[in-house]
Amino acid sequence: MYERKIPLNLNCGLDLIGEVLYGKWKIRLLWFINEGYQRPSELQRKIPDASRRVLNIQLKELEGHDLVTKKIYPVVPPKVEYALTDFGKTLIPVISVLGKWGDENEERLRSLILKDS
Length: 117
Hints:
Blueprint: H1 13-21, H2 26-34, H3 40-46, H4 52-64, E1 68-73, E2 79-84, H5 86-89, H6 92-104, H7 106-116
Antiparallel strand pairs: 1-2
C-alpha cells in the first residue's frame, strides 16, 4: 500500500485547494467537462499532451474528491461519461477568474516562463 513520504499539511484553505487540484491537467479537465466534453476520448483530444493513463488517474482523483462523477453505461464496448458534481460546479467561477487573470497577463507570464526554461 502507498504510504506518503511527506505528511499532509491541511492547515488552511490554500493547502486544501492544493491537495485537491494538484495535478497538471485537473483544472483543464474540470473546465472541459463543464463545457460538455464528457467522454474520455473527447477529453484526450482536448488535452493531447496528456497521456490517457495520466488523465485517467487525475479523473479518478477528481472523482474521489467529489468534483466529478463517472457514469459507466452497460454496453459493449463500455461507454463512460464524466459530469461535474454540484460541488465541482462551484469551482468553475474560480477557474474562470484564474483564466481571465492569465489572459490579462499573458505576455508577462509567457516571457517569465520562457526566461526560466
